[in-house]
Amino acid sequence: MSSSPPASAPPRPPATRAKRLTLVLAFLASAVLAATGVSAWHTPKAEAFEVGTWYQLQSRHSGLVLGIRAASPDNGAEAVQWDANGSYDQQFRFVDSGGGYYRIQARHSNKVLDVASGSTADGAKVQQWGDANSTNQQWRIQESGGYATFVNRASGKALDLWEWSTVKGGRISQYTATGAVNQQWRLVPVDGSGRPGHVDDLEGFGNGTTGGQGGTTVTVTNQADLETYANASGAYIIKVAAAINISPKGKEIRVGSNKTIIGVGTSGQIVGGGFFLGAGTNNVIIRNLTIRDTLMADDDPGDDAYDYDGIQMDTASNVWIDHNRIYNMNDGLIDSRKDTTNLTVSWNELGPGNKSFGIGWTENTTARITIHHNWIHGTNQRNPSTDNVAYAHLYNNHLQDVSGYGNYSRGATKMVIENSYFDNVNDPFYPDATAQLRQSGSILVDCTGDRVTSGSAFTPSTFYPYTLDAASAVPSGG
């Protein structure tokens, strides 16, 4: 075995506040009316902006972009700054209010930037709120040197980066217009999706999975309908359009073959339960859902008495788990067991929780699994623990604040790790005495313990094409 040094690590950022979610899929975003394309600035020398075009608003002072805290869709959610990651809560367009004023509309919620309670005070909170076209939601856009300053119609004060913050999560307020750089914003047009070009692509060993494509599309808002369609014969696309509370707590809804289960916007949630894919189940897609909250207070700290997983797969095949948020489950957030194969797990947020992602429960070595662009944080063990997997390809994952261990290759597993980002992780990656692990291009920041490689494992590109992002881009969404 040899110790594998990490790539040169950049300085740790001044704050480690959770990065915002990127769960809402382009084709399920709330429909919005297209505004008439009109070019406008309020000085003649600047380039025009387009009414109806989506922009990121980047602070001249900090380099961070304006967004809505935790990508909330709710009224009153405050405006903050964050790393640009392409998520819809970081995209805004201008809606003409007349008289040279515009509302600034968030793409993920269709709500507009609003000075709370119509305040005229310095430091007043800027939030999102339903569009009433009131004067505290209207802004004059003034240009200087290619940067915009937004002045509120009701208060006459400017959109301001409070106390000159450079920290992720720094709040946005209004303040007397001074022309300072913390009140100046660069308008960065986004493309059709505003997200990484490959964010909706199915890559890896799950390639070819189609789920319920070509079948019947249904929308569910209750447990009975969800169970009926998830385990029905035939192909179904099942849209989850509500937070469904599962009873009894911890129940895992059985999912049959040829199913797509997908959340509508941000509303699709499975609360107090999860999903189970049993032997022989194949061709399943689970996307854009929040699965949460089966923790049992009497089962701490081991989480052993109640086997309440977010998604459990036993001898399933051709599965794609993508763009979900899974947290606070009493057992595993995801368990892939008993030779489940041809599995891709991508672009999910896993955590907080004790056991993140367990793989194995078999003496065979046949499974093929791809795990990429996931954010695993606030967890202890199984991140993942990968036992007897023929080919395990892990790339562009972000592990953060992991107390137990990170990527663990066990048994006869051949594991390849590429361009991942380990932040405050104990034992970031290592194999046991019989497994192989090859690592390249990853960045480690404030990590402790083992970072060990062994053997040549395999070459993923001989199995499929894939898009490998720089490790330095991973914390901001790849």
TrEMBL record:
This is Pectate lyase. It comes from the Bacteria. It is found in: Secreted. The keyword DNA-binding does not apply. Pfam families: Pectate_lyase_4, RicinB_lectin_2. Its main location: secreted. Belongs to the polysaccharide lyase 1 family. Keywords: Carbohydrate metabolism, Lyase, Polysaccharide degradation, Secreted. One of its GO terms (molecular function) is pectate lyase activity. Residues 53-188 form the Ricin B lectin domain. The keyword Ubl conjugation does not apply. It comes from Glycomyces algeriensis.
